[in-house]
Write a structure and sequence with these properties.
This protein is mainly alpha-helical and 372 residues long. The protein contains 18 helices and four strands. The longest helix is centred in the C-terminal third of the chain and has 26 residues.
Amino acid sequence: MVKDKIINILNIIGLTCLMLDSGGGLKLRNISFLIIFLFAFYGIYKDRACNKNFINYYLIFIVTLVPGIWMSFANSIPVLQILNWVMSFALIPLFYFYAKGSKLSQRSFVVAGFVFSIIVIALFFGRLMNIGIAVVANDYITSHSDGFFGDKKFLSGGILPNVYFQGTLSVIICGCLSLNNKNYIIFFVILVGLILAPSRFGFLVLMLWAGFLFFKKSWRRLIYLPLIIVVCFVILQNLDFGIELFSVFTGESDSLEIRNGHFLSIYNIFANNPVFFLTGQGPGSIFYTFGINSLTDNIEVSQLEYLRKYGILSFVAFCLFYFMPVFSRLKSDIFIKGALLLYFIVSFSNPVLFSVFSMLFLAFSYKEIFDN
């Protein structure tokens, strides 16, 4: 039907804008919120029923945020700053009704991921070939977005354009879902987008997922594994991206050192003040981290950052809420469950686990697995 096609297009536009403008600097996120709010209210009007599992685990999770938020108020952190950090959590019920009202589907996520990746690829080669419109677009995005743009110097000495949006790792979800209906071309395009962005860990996690699905169909295929590893190694070691990828394991990359510094700093916070281990320091609070040797209010490791802000009790409640769809036996949708699991893993490398896109997908997962 025409109506369903229009709704699907609006869903794709909304999801794409969220990935391109996760931080809101480009103002594209406003389009996403407009679409979300309209369909959410329609979903509430049409069917106010809400799954019991969703309500129960969400309420438990939300209540455990209170001590951390109270710590923020006690330390005179501005209300708007606190709201900025808890907004994605507060909007989860709205995302749930949006998913119901718009009949949000896996296909919407897949196509949105494809469109996003095409934009990344176009900006990369546009910058590489110094095409006017691409240069102008890159300059505008650089000055209004919280991503990483400009030029990236690789360990090999090569310099290539950097086209890393704040929401780049959201395509991990889209790439995972694309394999549900064997959309291999879209999966390949998403992989290319991750290579060019570049995102080493995102690329690696998505490739491992594809490998798992490949061998899961028949474990006899494991005989091809040594050949696949050799071919991948030969190809990647001759590419700047491949050298960067291997640097994570050889120790040449400073990423592990930075994360170790973050871990040590947060451990010291809890050791010096055990109360923070229970309540957290609160959203919007700042601390000194050895990882970057400066004060910050957010670090790359999402799980550590959540633990620091809200404490261990809230972290356990969040994990319970997050993984409930993954371990549910009500519906065996390995692709949705896999996407949730992969995104949790990849968030160890970037602070993306609590983004609007991530919480929207979590709400969608509850709707797909429990409501169906």
